[in-house]
Design goal:
- With 385 residues, this protein is an alpha/beta fold.
- It has two domains: 2-120 and 326-354, 3-Layer(aba) Sandwich (Rossmann fold), CATH 3.40.50; 125-315, Dihydrodipicolinate Reductase, domain 2, CATH 3.30.360.10.
- The protein contains 15 helices and 15 strands.
- It has helices spanning 2-11, 26-36, 50-58, 70-84, 95-102, 105-110, 125-135, 158-167, 172-180, 222-229, 246-259, 265-279, 327-339, 351-354, 357-369; strands at 19-23, 40-44, 62-65, 87-90, 114-116, 139-150, 188-189, 192-193, 202-207, 211-217, 235-243, 295-304, 307-315, 347-349, 378-384.
- A hairpin with a 3-residue loop joins strand 9 and strand 10 (211-217).
- It is globular.
- It starts with a helix and ends with a strand.
- The relative contact order is 0.16.
């Protein structure tokens, strides 16, 4: 879905002359290419076939990787792109995989490759919002991002879960959400990397305008990438809050079971989807005073004009939401910046290291919602501590 949508955006650009849609299933790739139009053609390749992957990469100027689950595929495709000497973008959201990808920085530089990892919704737009939030303070101590996910907004049904079990074709995105809560994963506390090796923490967070809610710490890459761009930062958190809130404890427990080897990530994901189906009609978020379709917000804590302050920002619903995901737009626009020479730095890059937060977020919002210059990108608030 994300790859096809990103390629549709790219096909409309004069910078792009040809798009090769590569996947395990040639028929599916051919249908995708036909839907995109005359610039697209299809090829069959499995990311596990290193030789063929490198050969295909050599015929392209840049590789967009939307394979998944990304903890199984990102490094294979990134390595192939670097070996072929070709630029690269992905939507990888796994913290440990991002750590491993960043270790390829010198190799990418030696090959003259620009490889931008994790440029989707979260990480990507969310991590750029975190950088923007940190910049609102004179001295920043902590920055965090939290996604509020109502079960009722996900569109998960018994029939869908049954089809996942019967076909074995399970959503890579949902598997990533389960991997997120499975220790060990990177953390950042007290100004140092502090891996989360036991059951993921449950914390209280403040939802702007709503008060404290429970949330679960997860292994998204921001704890790895944000300190590289904000060296003085002391704490970095990425969190998820499920609704109804009892799902948070169940989510943590499934991650802990996966960590102990009692379940693999596919099994844990299917079990969690069963829980979502069971819980989603018990309490609707709107009736409890929470956003019906979910929300993501970022907060930064630190010093502003001598006062200790908390700054909040959240994307406005006109362009960002659970059903209006900016991943494809962010991926396509970052790709065009590399193709067009706006990003020239070689090596393995993160969004915060090479993109200016608000201008890029505005480009994404324009692509998605066609907002004009007066369109409001972020809802913002301050709190004195």
């Amino acid at each position: 879905m994300y790859g096809k949508n990103a390629c549709s955006i790219l096909a409309s650009s004069s910078l792009v002359s040809e798009i090769l849609i590569a996947g395990r299933n040639l028929e599916t790739a051919q249908k995708c290419a036909k839907d995109i139009g005359g610039k697209a053609r299809a090829a069959s390749v499995d990311v596990a076939d290193r030789g063929k992957l490198i050969a295909i990469a050599r015929d392209c100027d840049i590789i967009l990787n939307t394979t998944g689950p990304e903890y199984e595929t990102v490094l294979d495709v990134l390595n192939a792109a670097i070996t072929a000497g070709k630029n690269y973008c992905d939507i990888g959201a796994d913290g440990p995989t991002t750590e491993a990808a960043l270790k390829l920085d010198l190799t990418a530089k030696a090959k003259g490759v620009t490889a931008l990892v994790g440029i989707g919704a979260c990480p990507g737009v969310a991590s750029l919002m975190m950088l923007h939030a940190a910049r609102q303070l004179d001295r920043v101590e902590k920055v965090s991002s939290c996604g509020f996910f109502p079960a009722a907004a996900l569109g998960i049904t018994k029939d869908l879960v049954r089809s996942y079990r019967e076909t074995g074709r399970l959503s890579a995105g949902m598997q990533m959400l389960t991997k997120w809560v499975t220790p060990p994963f990177p953390g950042y506390r007290g100004g140092v990397s502090a891996p989360i090796s036991n059951e993921a923490d449950e914390m209280n967070v403040t939802m702007p305008g709503k008060g404290e809610i429970p949330a679960v710490l997860v292994g998204s890459p921001e704890a790895v990438t944000i300190p590289r761009s904000i060296p003085e930062i002391r704490e970095v958190y990425t969190l998820v809050s499920w609704f109804p809130f009892q799902l948070n404890g169940m989510y943590r427990q499934l991650g802990a079971r996966a960590a102990r080897g009692e379940l693999n990530w596919s099994q844990a994901t299917l079990d969690f989807l069963d829980l979502i189906v069971a819980e989603q009609d018990r309490e609707l978020p709107a009736s409890a005073g929470f956003p019906r379709d979910g929300v993501r917000w970022v907060e930064a804590v630190g010093i502003k004009k001598g006062n200790r302050m908390r700054y909040y920002c959240s994307p406005t619903p006109i362009w960002y939401g659970w059903n209006n995901n900016p991943t494809s737009a962010a991926l396509a626009l970052a790709t065009l910046k590399i193709l067009g020479g706006e990003i020239r730095t070689h090596g393995v890059l993160t969004p915060e290291s090479c993109l200016d937060p608000l201008p890029f977020i505005k480009e994404v919002a324009r692509q998605m919602a066609k907002i004009d210059e007066t369109g409001n990108l972020l809802e913002e608030a301050w709190q004195q501590l």
